[in-house]
Every structure is written in structure tokens, then in C-alpha cells.
Amino acid sequence: MLSCRELIKGHPAILEDRHGLSFTGHTPFPTIIDALNKSGVVMLRGALPPKELRSCRRSFERFARRLGKRVAPDPTGDEGPSTEWATGEREEGSWHRPWIVRDRDDTPAAAVIALLLRSWAWKVVETVCGSTDVVLLLASCAARHAIDKELPIGAHQDCKVVSPDIPFSIWVPLHDVVPLRTSGLGFIVPPPSEMLPTLPHGDIGADYVAERVAGAWTPTYRAGDLTLHTKLSPHFTTGYGTRSDRYSFEIRAMAWTDAPEQLQDPAIYVRRRGDGAPVVVQTRCSGDTRAQAFVAKTALLAARGLSAGFA
After folding, report:
1. ∠ CA 158-163-165 to the nearest 5 degrees?
2. Where are the stretches annotated Disordered (predicted)?
3. What's the confidence (pLDDT) of residue 309?
4. Which of 30, 221, 223, 249 could, after both became Cys, cross-link 177 (CB 3.0–4.6 A)?
């Protein structure tokens, strides 16, 4: 089966933004939304501050290194790592619910969410949602440490492997991601208009990618860049066998009025206040979901950012 490295070697043009899908805060929002609607993915360059992301990466890295080691129970009472990681990470890394990744008082996922609320990219999120009342669906978010390994090509759609109800996903690497060096994401544009047939493990197959190389894109991310892709967008994880580390978060959100009840625990609700700044106005975390401290910390960090003039 064709590997990611072989795909790029045979088709180096997929490293280029041939479809014009990279934008900055100076781009008119209708242009960004039009590109997303047509291509299923957009890159938002410089959306988050690299300095703060470096701190988040270091915290995530320390957390990952402690997996499998005896540590004291977390004083916050929030959920700890799954027993899946009782002996440490796998060869390919580990993945977690966002509130589980903690390093003493640091909660990198909470920091990234707070940074996103301060960013111009949040207006893009609101526009895609069709509302300034947005709920962050924390149980559908993910934190991943990927250790790069050689991977075959293949692709999946989030409407199949995440939820058919969530309209889009935001992918935030905490550092540079350079194809052929670091595991990242690749996309196939334009997206189909429906959920595609899949193999038993949810993958739509290598043939789909191989037959649509003209629409393939494996972008380079610089720290602070993020991509937003729709639930129908076929995308794939890249892997080259370099054994490099990649730390990233997947964030999922939608309009309050559109969110199914079962996806809203835990959740953070955001609305724009009178002066136009987005604020956390409500949180939800049932007693069965041990993420109360994380939810509170996220709201606090978001509020501190606004008081510091970051909105």
C-alpha cells in the first residue's frame, strides 16, 4: 500500500497550497467562509500566539512522560489518565480527553481554548456556526501526542468517526508541523456532498486518496496556525517514520440551538457581551463527569485574557 512518504515523493505539489486555502486575520471573513464551503478546509495563519503555545506544549510533554509512572492523585478531583496508559504510551503515542492532560496547575487545553476565544479566528468559528452563541463540546474534543511512524495513505470523515451532528473541527498543533518531518494532517478537496462508504474501521480507503491526488494537500503549520475542516472533509493523518513528537488538540463546537443534548456534557457556553468581546457565560459538567476543575479553569483563563486586553 502506498505510504504517505511515497505519496509526497511522487506528487510533491501536494505540499503547496494549490487551492488558495490559507488565510490571515486581514482576509475578509466572507472570503474565508466561501473557501470553507467550497473546499471543506481552511488554514488560519497566525491565529494563536506561538509563545503561549510553547508553554502548552511543554506542559503536555511533561504529562505524557509521566504516563505509566506512579503519581499522586490529582488534588482537583478531575479524572486521571485512562487505564489504557497504565504502563505508559504506545509506540505511536497517546490520546486523551482534553481535561485529563494536566501538569501540576497547568491545563494546556484550557489555555488553548482561552487563546482561541481571544483570537480573530473565533469570529470565523461564529460565522461557521451561524451564531455568536457557541457551545464548546468538550467530550468531543481530543488531546493527542503522536510519535511519528510510517503510515499508509487513507482517509476518514468526522461525520463517521466523530459525530454526524458536529459540523466542523478545529485542529491546533502546539508547534511547527512540517511534512516529511512531523506527523500532521492531509486533506482531499473538494469534499463529497455526503458520508462515504467505509471499511470496518471507519476509513474510506487508500484508493479514494490515490484517485484524487489533484485535490490532496498536506500543509505546513507554523506554531499559531490552525485548520478548520467540515464534517464531510476527507482527511488523513500523515506519518513518515521519523519518530518525532507532535502535540495537538482537536476542538469541536457548534451553535447552542443546534447542539444535541447528549453532546453537551461537559460543555462551555460562549456569548458576546455588550462591548463585543466573547465571554464564557455558562458551563456544564455533571457529577458523573469529573472535569469540573478543568471547566472552571477554562472560564477563568478566558476571563483573565479579556481583563488583560486580549479580546
Report:
1. 110
2. 70-89
3. 37
4. 221
